[in-house]
Design goal:
Elements (H helix, E strand, L loop, with lengths): L1 H5 L32 H9 L1 H4 L4 H13 L3 H5 L6 E2 L4 E4 L10 E4 L2 H14 L19 H8 L10 H12 L4 H7 L7 H4 L7 H19 L14
Helix pairs in contact: 4-6, 9-11
Length: 234
């Protein structure tokens, strides 16, 4: 506008009139997530949530699956049995349940399958894997969060925080960033690449998810974990 005034294209610069009229972009909200050194204690508390802390067994399994799969809490609580293929060790989440509105495959580790089999015994008669108090609807969106509060993690950890923990540690372990991002189901800005994302890097993601589950077991047991070399995409 200053150039336009100087060149005779307009009489004044109106930019000053906008001062204070446009709200600044809000700062991004980062979900609370634990550091790696605090992870073992949380994992052990999760394993005893129903037996030692008076929580629901279903909620214990939900927390364990959040840690093992690091999906979004909404994707977990609205999961149905028809989405899980035990033979292929896959959980296929339909597009309408995904934040980015694209179908997503979650490779299931041996540990995740074990949790799901326990849930099948508990909730196999329902369509929801995690039915709510009224089985016609899914588990409450605050169930996992309130369970973390109950275990003493208010302000320190959220259900969404498992995604941040996994992303940070897997990157430090040397896994390919594209493999991690695909498993996190983050948006792909390139539309051509996005068209192939449903099964992209699936073999690498299967290996990564199993190594992640093994890593969690080792941390829970108190073992010193040697950083793994990430899965090569070559």
């Amino acid at each position: 506008f200053r150039y336009a005034v100087a060149s005779g294209r307009c009489e004044r610069d109106p930019v000053g009139d906008l001062k204070g009229a446009i709200k600044p972009r809000p700062a991004p909200k980062h979900m609370n997530a634990l550091s790696e050194k605090d992870l073992p204690d949380l994992l052990r508390k999760m394993d005893t949530y129903a037996t030692e802390q008076g929580g629901e067994l279903q909620t214990q399994y939900a927390l364990q699956l959040l840690a093992l799969t690091f999906v979004r809490t909404g994707e977990l609580r609205e999961a149905t049995w028809e989405e899980v293929d035990f033979d292929k060790a896959e959980w296929r989440i339909p597009a309408e349940k995904m934040k980015m509105k694209a179908p997503h495959i979650v490779p299931l580790s041996v540990q995740a399958l074990e949790v799901l089999r326990k849930l099948k015994e508990l909730n196999g008669s329902y369509s929801w894997i995690f039915p709510g108090v009224r089985p016609a609807v899914a588990m409450s969106k605050n169930t996992a969060l309130f369970a973390l509060y109950r275990m003493g993690y208010r302000g320190r950890m959220t259900g969404h925080g498992f995604r941040a923990v996994a992303s940070t540690i897997l990157n430090e372990m040397g896994f390919d960033a594209d493999v991690i991002e695909r498993q996190l189901a983050h948006a792909e800005r390139n539309k051509v690449r996005a068209a192939y994302h449903r099964a992209e890097y699936l073999p690498e993601r299967r290996k990564m998810m199993q190594q992640w589950a093994d890593y969690l077991d080792s941390k829970k047991a108190g073992a010193d974990v040697i950083p793994l070399r990430g899965v090569s995409t070559a």
